[in-house]
Amino acid sequence: MVIGCGGDCGLDREAPAAGVQGGYSGRWRTQNGRMVLPLLSRRRWLAAGAGGALGMAAPARAGAPATWRVGPGEAFSRVADALRHAADGDTIAVLPGTYRGDVAVVTQRRLHIVGVGAQPVFEADGRHAEGKAIWVVRDGDITIENIGFRGARVPDANGAGIRFERGRLRLRQCSFADNQMGVLTSNDASAELDIAQCSFADAPDNPASLPHLIYVGRIGVLRLHDSQLRHGRVGHLLKCRARAAEITGNRLDDGPDGRASYEIDLPNGGRVLVEGNTLVQSPLSQNPVMLAYGAEGQAWPDSALTVRDNTFINRRALDGLFIRVWDDRLPPGAPVLSTRNRLLGPGGVALGVDGRSVNDRRGNAPD
After folding, report:
1. How far apart are CA 216 and CA 227, in angstroms?
2. Which of 20, 144, 209, 364 is most buried, judged by most C-beta within 10 A?
3. What CATH number is associated with residue 116?
4. Could you tell me the pLDDT band of residue 256, with boundaries at 50, 70 and 90?
């Protein structure tokens, strides 16, 4: 069932890319400065069960999930309005454009919000939901795909693009820029956050707090895959307190003029795999450590760290620590393994008394 009608939406208009069929698949790309999802054929789009995003749905039936369209000429000009009508299991399809001040709280138990074509961008424009974020995800099984979040500011200085409180949240091909926090979670031990093919960038000046690009509290699981984190400022690119984390295939690069502290901070230990990433420390970084583990003491009954097949590039001229483990603050005997990593530039590793380095390779930082 498709919900849509005419009307002036009052957006910063941007026409969909030529030939858009409404589907999407694979990696994002850029087009005219915006992130764009590759397109599927109409048949594949229908087979995916989301054809309603462009008015190509199967015949409606009682209780069938609905697709609610947001954008120029559609039923709703704001996602916040569509959320007031959407039921569990529905989809909200957002057309290209810049949506200013469209802040919202997602209360559905199951929902898919997807940008169709060129990535829609949600600018905070001085507004926030509940003093927390552009969007607050309250609970449930939620997927957000191909949406941009920019400019989050709140009075207590931790305004997020998305505040995730409980449940399971999947982020796919989204972008976060110039937010006090890109994504900020609660400390709900059963929550799961799954991020893939997203970008986080450009932490603002924020003297009242530390602007982390991603700040994961004491939740159950973080999965961060195939994403880009760049240009921090004083805070960390990634700070994660989760009980279990898989950080794989990402690029965390502070750039030549970034001022982030750690590239990855795992302050409470946990069971963590860091694999296949590229970590690049800026020459202007305020902290020599690139990956920190256990600095604030244990929060979980068991901890284990495996760091393998990564490339670390330290561009600080004087010193650096590619990996530092505070083993005296972790459960006794917590295993730590660093293996097959490329450690490029000045510095070393401090893995603790029981930590092992196996087949790590040293070299010069590339120009």
Report:
1. 15
2. 144
3. 2.160.20
4. confident
- The C-alpha atoms of residue 98 and residue 114 are separated, in whole angstroms, by 14
Tokens at 117, concatenated:
């074509």
What's the pLDDT tens digit per position in 314-328?
Answer: 998 778 899 999 999
What are the beta bridge partners of residue 150?
A: 123, 177
Query: In a 10 Å sphere around its CB, with 0-12 CB exposed, 13-18 middle and 19+ buried, how is residue 143 labelled?
Result: middle
**Is residue 362 over pLDDT 90?**
yes
Partnered with residue 259 across adjacent β-strands are 233
> pLDDT category, 143, cuts 50, 70, 90?
very high
Six-digit token pair at 311?
């490339």
Question: H-type helices in 15-77, by residue range?
Answer: 42-47
Given a cut of 70, whether residue 205 has pLDDT beyond it is yes
pLDDT at 367: 84
- 23 assigned to some structural domain: no
3-state secondary structure at position 98 = strand
The single-letter code of the amino acid at 268 is N
Tell me if 320 is assigned to some domain. yes
The closest of 194, 94, 68, 64 to 142, measured between CA atoms, is 194
Q: Which domain holds residue 172?
A: 90-363
Instruction: Give the confidence band of 20 by pLDDT, cuts at 50, 70, 90.
Output: very low
Q: Is residue 185 part of a domain?
A: yes
The total domain count for the chain is 1
